[in-house]
Amino acid sequence: QVQLVESGGGLVQAGGSLRLSCAASGRTFSFSSYAMGWFRQAPGKEREFVAAISWDGVTTYYADSVKGRFTISRDNAKNTVHLQMNSLKPEDTAVYYCAAHRGAARALATVSRVDYWGQGTQVTVSS
Predict the structure, then answer these.
(1) How many CB atoms lie within 10 A of CB 105?
(2) How does DSSP classify residue 58?
(3) Could you read off the pLDDT of 55-109 as tens digits, one per residue?
(4) 48-53 and 60-62 as β-strands: parallel, antiparallel, unpaired?
(5) Residues 6+ away with beta carbon under 8 Å from 110
(6) Distance, CA of 33 to CA of 97 (rounded, Å)
(7) Do 105 and 53 meet the contact criterion of CB atoms below 8 Å apart?
């Protein structure tokens, strides 16, 4: 059984920063074989892609709405993936989900290609 556990969410003022983390575990889960990513879902909206990173950490992808403000990274030795969020805006308010896909990071931009989801962590940005 694979578990993705997010942490680091919270309440922050506009312009502030937060760092989300996702810890992956599972007896048969080979973390370095998976592209990892982050999605978010605001109330009344569909879940949307935020960022993805290749298995080796070399290639990253970002939604246009977060490009230049968010940075995704991973540590394969610790089975963790992070999302550094700077210059936060009220429209970034959402539940943020960690995601894993056994394949190319580019494919992780699509909800239907996600193999595993975390339970989500709330990020609230006040104006």
Answers:
(1) 23
(2) -
(3) 999 999 999 999 999 999 999 999 999 999 999 999 999 999 999 999 999 999 8
(4) antiparallel
(5) 49
(6) 19
(7) yes
